[in-house]
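Quick one: structure tokens for this chain, please?
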Amino acid sequence: MMLFATSAPANVYPIAALVTLAVLALVAAVIIKQRNQKSIIEDAVVAFPKRNVLLIDDLRNFRETPKDANVVIARTSAEALIELEKDVAWDEIWFDHDLGEPNGVLDTTMPVVDFLSERAYFDNPVFVNRVIVHTSNSVGRDQITQSLRHYGYSVSVVDAKTFFIV
């Protein structure tokens, strides 16, 4: 099969062959890009998974659950400790202080604060990008923020009314 007329000068064939190869390479690149587009998007989703958020509160729920987050709600300090013992990197941990009286015994988040502090003290901290304290208890708020800041955690204090419903 002849691609070109036989009457063309001999020096045209190498140029035409190069142009043909360049066009074929361009077409191949476009096809590969289209086929891989889905793979690139899937890889990006894996590379940027949802944020992990732990809410420790006996009553409240977020007004709007963050769409880009896996939210775990712990209603007691024991539930929170179970979650923190898992090998999870937490983007945010939200702290209430007073957790009611499950089983007739007053519960607070101080066992959780102690756990995080102890892990940090022994150079094995739980990865927490940001701690957010939303308790209405001013004494408890100060205990949580001072303890966790002392061990290097980034702590913010917010008004619960802004973020939660009961």
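Residues 20 and 118 are 68 Å apart (CA to CA).
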